[in-house]
């Protein structure tokens, strides 16, 4: 299996001041003049202290999956939602042409999360927000589809898919079938150590996978997030956060 480890992202903020984020732009490791990969714009890995507020701010032409692993937050937005987000209750913000939101971290320990910025198939779509309660924090020993263009709990308006799995130490998990014939994948290790295609990945690391088949071997208990996208499908690369930051 052809596996390429991506460079670590740019770090911003200070955890001692309540907010720290690592911004992963997969295209920076892959070349081609795009900071993203197909409909995957960027992945923010964040740690935010209880009580911290990320004030009201705009998004435009971003599809934003909030993937919480620990802590709780209160979400408010300009389409009328005031909802709690947890490690079982996730959120997709389909920002479209006009959207603003804020997040308040609740007093349940630090929030540890991925904020995943996906690219819509076109600009100026209508804004909407989706919530889904998955019931369980972890999907043990199998892949769980979280978001996709159809048939997923949370809809992405592009050819992009997000799944997760928990793999026990010493166990192996085969990659799921490709969701589209020309899809490629990113594997992010949220926690633990794994081996894939002869390459070791540790917590916080991400790899680019091109093979249709393969498996992940857990060297410790591991939490995995798997992204797939069809780079040849339509996507808009001018989103406020998900868009390409490299000059053409």
Automatic annotation (TrEMBL):
Similarity remark: Belongs to the pirin family.
Domain spans labelled Pirin N-terminal: 51-117
InterPro entries on file: Pirin, Pirin_N_dom, RmlC-like_jellyroll, RmlC_Cupin_sf
SUPFAM superfamilies: RmlC-like cupins (SSF51182)
Pfam families: Pirin
Transmembrane segments: none
Protein name in UniProt: Pimeloyl-CoA dehydrogenase
Segments forming a coiled coil: none
């Amino acid at each position: 299996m052809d596996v390429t480890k991506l460079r670590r992202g740019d770090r911003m903020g200070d955890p001692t001041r309540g907010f720290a984020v690592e911004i992963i732009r997969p295209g920076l490791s892959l070349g081609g003049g795009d900071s993203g990969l197909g409909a995957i714009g960027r992945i923010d890995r964040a740690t935010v202290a209880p009580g911290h507020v990320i004030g009201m701010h705009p998004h435009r032409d971003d599809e934003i999956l909030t993937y919480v692993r620990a802590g709780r937050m209160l979400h408010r937005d300009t389409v009328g939602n005031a909802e709690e987000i947890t490690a079982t209750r996730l959120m997709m913000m389909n920002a479209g042409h006009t959207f603003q939101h804020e997040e308040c971290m609740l007093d349940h320990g630090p929030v540890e999360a991925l904020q995943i910025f996906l690219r819509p198939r076109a600009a100026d779509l209508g804004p909407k927000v989706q919530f889904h309660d998955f019931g369980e924090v972890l999907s043990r020993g199998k892949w769980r589809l979280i978001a996709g263009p159809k048939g997923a709990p949370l809809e992405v308006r592009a050819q992009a898919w997000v799944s997760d799995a928990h793999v026990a130490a010493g166990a192996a998990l085969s990659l799921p079938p490709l969701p589209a014939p020309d899809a490629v994948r990113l594997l992010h290790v949220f926690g633990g150590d794994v081996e894939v295609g002869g390459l070791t990945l540790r917590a916080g690391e991400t790899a680019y996978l091109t093979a249709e088949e393969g498996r992940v071997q857990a060297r410790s208990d591991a939490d995995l997030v798997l992204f797939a996208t069809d780079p040849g499908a339509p996507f808009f690369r001018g989103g406020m956060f998900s868009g390409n930051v490299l000059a053409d």
